[in-house]
């Protein structure tokens, strides 16, 4: 008796075979190695996945929702979904882009659940991203220019902000961004450009208002 | 190339994403067009300023929270593995489909039943306004836990916060003297100007506004010996 469905067969085959394992340092293991170890029940594999991508996911969430606490909550949810659905990862993209896609989808759905008036307030507000883990002295010394850029980035429309964050902060290639956003490369190019243009206009406007005051 | 380079072309040029002929045409144009060189410089400064933004480390407690939730949920790696664990070996594709459909249907029905039971006991209002501080000032010690209507609250930084909200809730703090906070207070003057922080909670489209109280007022109330449970109007 044996498991006979297509997906279960592959699982059964991988379990029955005894692969020759060449020990690798955690950072050297490929995506496929990690996923397979995870499916075997190796808890350390998921811990390694978490270590690889936690900062990446947190910073993406932070730039998309603008709030450290909500970003932490989102990051937690992302990794719970990664844990629950990692068996579905087929390796057609890299694990990194797959995790990015989970994170971005969650940011979008969290954003769409907010009341419209509150979202409008948050995006129009001139409020910095206060990280409560930084003390008042650190915040006071923080680069004013950086705070301006953070404010401007939060004011950019989410569809363009995503592209700018993935390119300029996460340093992904156009191809990777296209895979994550599931759009054509031409669309990626356009969204990055429009995001940067919006940022440029917002920053120039802020500079002008500072000069006038 | 037409008279001037488009923003999109300049942006792609910065990213080295133009094909070679397009890149060459742009370079030839830039050699003679001051305006496009200026635009390219502005764009480059924007990109540089974004790339200089600080990369934040996630809170250290996050890893423990993820681990704890995974341990509590006990979710299997795949639906098939869950089925194997509980139903034994599966013999044919038709029985797999039938069993999976049956299990999924039961799970969905149970989920909605449980949700209905939970929600029946918890009235939800679109806006929850705090009563006057004299009636419900959250007096207590930092970290103190009180149970109201079967829900557990912990006092943190002058606010009673509901515990065990799971993943469907997100608290969003807004400083009362920020632009967002001022707008909220303008729209809801009943909150008054008592608080230095407004707590907003998102739950599937429901937003709860909870006022806060200045620390000095809390201290004064404590000195007077006022003892009140947390806000029960939620």
Question: Would you write up a description of this structure?
Answer:
The complex is a heterodimer of chains A (213) and B (234). Chain A is built from 11 helices and no strands. By secondary structure, chain A is mostly helical. In chain A, α4 packs across α5. With 234 residues, chain B is α+β, with helices and mostly antiparallel strands. Helices cover 47% and strands 14% of the residues of chain B. Chains A and B meet through α1, α3, α4, α6 and α8 of A and α1, α3, α4, α5 and β4 of B.
Instruction: Please give the most extensive interface between any two protein chains, plus how many residues each contributes.
Output: A-B, 71 and 58 residues
Kindly state the percentage of residues in helix of chain B: 40-55%
Radius of gyration of chain B: 28 Å
Structural class by SSE content of chain A = mainly alpha
Q: Approximately how much beta-strand content do the residues of chain B carry?
A: 5-15%
* Succession of helices and strands of chain B: HHHHHHHEEEEHEEH
The number of helices of chain B is 9
Assembly classification: heterodimer
Percent strand of chain A: under 5%
- Biggest β-sheet description of chain A: none
List low-confidence stretches of chain B.
75-92, 120-138, 165-171, 201-234
| Strand arrangement in the largest pleated sheet of chain B | 1-2-3
Mean pLDDT of chain B: 62
Order of helices and strands of chain A: HHHHHHHHHHH
Number of distinct beta strands of chain B: 6
Intertermini distance of chain A: 81 Å
Which of globular, elongated, flat, extended, rod-shaped describes the shape of chain B? Answer: extended
Number of helices of chain A: 11
Report low-confidence residues of chain A grouped into runs of 5 or more.
1-23, 126-141
Range of helix content of chain A: over 70%
Query: How would you classify the helix and strand content of chain B by structural class?
Result: alpha+beta
